[in-house]
Give the backbone structure.
Amino acid sequence: MTSPDVVARGLTLRYGRTTALDDVTFTLAGGRIYGLLGRNGAGKTSLLSLLAGFRRPSGGRLTVAGAEPFEDPQVTEQVALVRDPGPLYDMWRVSEVLDFAARMRPRWDAACAERLVERFEVPLRRRVMTLSHGKKSALSITVGLAARAPITAFDEAYLGLDAPSRYAFYDELLADYATHPRTIIISTHLIEEVASLFEEVLILHRGRLLLHEDSDTLRSRGAAVTGPAAAVDRFVDGLTALGERRLGPTKSVTVYGELDGERTRRARAAGLDIDPVPLQDLFVHLTEDDARAAAATGGAS
Amino acid sequence: MPALRADRVRAVAGVLVSGHRCVLGGVWLLFAAIFALVGATIAATDGITTSVWDFASYGPKYFLLSLGVMLSTAHLPAYVANGVTRREFALGGGLFIAAVALVSAAVMAAGYLVEGLIYGAAGLPQELTTPHLYTSADQIGLVLVEFALVFLAHLVSGWLIGTAFARLGWSAIALVVPAALPALATDLAINSGWTPAAAAALGWTVPRLPAGVALGLAVVLAGWVATYLVTRDMPLKTT
Amino acid sequence: MSAAFDDSTPIYLQIAEQIEDQILRGDLREGDQVMSTNQYAAFYRINPATVAKGFHQLVADGILYKKRGIGMFVSEGAAETLRARRRERFFSDVVDPMLEEARMIGVSPDEIIARIRGAGARR
């Protein structure tokens, strides 16, 4: 089963006077795990709700294998959006929720669902309204994974889980992705835990697409230059600086951009330390200040 | 690209029906029990000469109205979240409410029959005190027609009201009366319940049976079409 | 983020290096099959595509080869190839920095030589 491509061209969404998404353009090749990063209100949920056919865009186009999601059953039955915790019938038992999803999702894998509720310790006979927030999230995740939809998106769906359950989720996600490859989009702000799962990263900031990059490439673009203040200033002159910190005579500047071998050697020769920047820090720096972010990434695409 | 698939419409209707089995069964049992109790009490104290079950439909009518409201507020989001289109839901929902209305009408007819048996054994006349399409409780066909229509109308009205609120928020208050039209109009069209008194007071003439039923059906259909139109491009909240 | 990897170099290169180390240490011998990309990914909780990139790097370097439908295997002479490459880099990557550090803290080349001789004698 190959997953269809998701293509956005000039995608815009407005709620009254607020612009949730502004001229977003990207192509997601099918079958990869994508990280959708952004601060609260950046537009992640808006983007995913358009993908799931919850509403129509205000402008531009979003297509899945060439078709727009809204009210198109060919598309909506291929997209599963898992929210935290999402719509669940309070009065129903867990087993009834799973039966419901089984009837509605053509690729439903009952054995997978059974295994997952056991792993997450969600009791089958309990009614949804008696479950804790974490267990409800686990149930939503179970439904999302067992549905085996060719495009599965998790909108901060696992934030309600405790740490052991989160790790169980990552393991199950990877295992399922290995046996049933499909497009998976994970929207989050718990970045460091999941960063290694992403093949590509998209960063939304105030409704605009800040960047869309291969994970490894993005990681290699950040560097922290630390040393005596004057030397650091000389070295980073001309580079895009995302942020800086001072401690007495020492200064540390986070730069964005490729630092080739030659530059790195010069830095070391000048007594400067060049350290890598974790994805989470890079994300924080890039979304801190509009002007810097725009300069760093050459404006939104 | 077709906007709906027959197999999915059937699945929606099927799940709605099985999901409501317990609720509907329980509610009808409750109403029946209440009426049995009331009847027994009156019989023991005053003595009855008229049908008690005659009044049994008022409670269920309004219960079904609220069931209709729940369709768009509680159920639609869950179905759309599972990949169903709004059109498929509107059609499947239509099948669902038709089934509910028919079954509920059958319960009403059965209630009359049971009451008839009990009264017969006690030697009491099963006299009807409120106006209906039927003149005696054993005209099952007419009983079924009347209640199927009335229940269907209330389900549709509830659904339309619920959808209006889900889509427009509190400003939908203004639409409550137009949305309640199917329920009101059907009652009027088939001249049952409270309508003859109102009609007489307002000086209206009530249509004859076949015309009345046809009018009732037309109004219900219009209500369902209105619901379909309002649902089919309704944005869903994501908060 | 798996504790086995850091941010210093791209993860796929770190994976490649890990496998190279295993070959050099003798944990993986010529002709042995390497764990599949999915097994690797599950073990370290990383994206299988990243693992695949690391494997492809090793295939391009002639360290691993692919048997269609079966998996990845260690090439003939892989250990020797790696040793030769590491030897080349040994002086620039290990010795020169060591000498630089020694100079910074005031350790003379003679002291270093004496130490090396001593270590050699004990072996």
Notes: The mean pLDDT of chain A is 88. The interface with chain C takes residues 32-33, 167, 170-171, 174-175, 177-178, 192-193, 195-199, 215-216, 219-220, 275-279 of chain A (CB under 8 Å). The first strand of chain A starts at residue 6 and ends at 15.
